[in-house]
Write a sequence for this structure.
């Protein structure tokens, strides 16, 4: 499962999707919106993406995981839209025959996701907001 979603990410759903009788380990990672960043109090975060492209990149990362860590069942999900503090922004689950494969695959996935998936993040503070990743641009080059 490789998706960009607007609705809340449900950890139990990701675990259910990757569960299988031939897999002896399931590792997960859930990134959440934190209340402080760079010394500022975060009120909310807004994620933007081009879903079709982001989902293709998530699928490529899933294939990398399988090539690098053996047989896996993988779920990679990124949420877009406005999220409040404590909400899950990214969910990763990997099931593998052995724990080391699953743990290593999840660690690899979050690093690659941050490097490659076209998702832009804007943080809102009590005194304003800031783009933390390269801001999305409109065809005219203006920030959108």
């Amino acid at each position: 499962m490789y998706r960009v979603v607007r609705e809340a990410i449900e950890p139990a759903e990701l675990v259910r999707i990757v569960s299988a009788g031939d897999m002896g380990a399931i590792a997960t990672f859930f990134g959440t919106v934190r209340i402080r960043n760079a010394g500022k109090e975060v009120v909310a975060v807004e994620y933007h993406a081009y879903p079709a492209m982001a989902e293709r990149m998530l699928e490529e990362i899933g294939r990398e995981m399988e090539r690098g860590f053996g047989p896996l069942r993988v779920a990679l999900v990124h949420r877009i839209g406005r999220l409040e503090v404590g909400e899950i922004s990214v969910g990763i689950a990997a099931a593998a025959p052995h724990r080391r494969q699953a743990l290593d695959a999840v660690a690899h996935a979050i690093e690659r996701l941050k490097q490659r998936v076209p998702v832009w993040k804007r943080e809102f503070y009590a005194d304003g907001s800031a783009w933390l990743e390269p801001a999305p641009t409109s065809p005219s080059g203006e920030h959108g």
Helices lie at 11-18, 51-69, 99-116. The chain has one domain: 2-131. The mean pLDDT is 90.
